[in-house]
Write a structure and sequence with these properties.
The protein is mainly alpha-helical. 62% of the residues lie in helices and 10% in strands. The chain is built from nine helices and three strands, in the order ααααβααββααα. It has a three-stranded antiparallel beta sheet with strand order 1-3-2. It is globular.
């Protein structure tokens, strides 16, 4: 039996069940499941946007974190970055077909969060008050 690398041995059974690409699928999930990625994808749903527009839409993301996420999404083929030779320079980001394919699940997840927000708040309050009482 071949020895497993530390990365393979720590792979969850769920990801491992997807075969040889299971480890990479986990990496993709780490990126697309990130809170900033969800908000960036949603921000770009309406078309091309500039950096400051995306930053405004996502609310609370630092310039550095937005830059890192945009680079990672571009690297993964989820969006394109277009720099226009103008003064002042203008750069726009836009979803690719691959990135647009994420819109439905992302919007579904955000809708679920909005619909169940009160229920989640109630559960948190109950757990927090029980913890404080003990």
């Amino acid at each position: 039996m071949p020895l497993l690398t530390s990365r393979e041995s720590s792979l969850s059974p769920v990801c491992a069940s997807y075969g040889p690409d299971g480890a990479f699928a986990r990496e993709v999930l780490d990126q697309v499941g990130d809170k900033w990625t969800l908000l960036i994808i949603t921000s770009l749903a309406g078309g091309a946007r500039r950096f400051t527009q995306i930053q405004r839409d996502t609310g609370g993301i630092s310039q550095r974190m937005l830059t890192l996420n945009l680079r990672n999404l571009q690297r993964d083929g989820m969006l394109t970055r277009t720099a226009y030779p103008e003064v002042p320079p203008r750069v726009e980001y836009e979803l690719t077909d691959l990135g647009r394919s994420l819109l439905e699940p992302v919007e579904g997840l955000l809708a679920w969060a909005a619909v169940h927000a009160a229920e989640v708040k109630a559960h948190r309050a109950a757990v927090d008050s029980a913890a404080a009482a003990s």
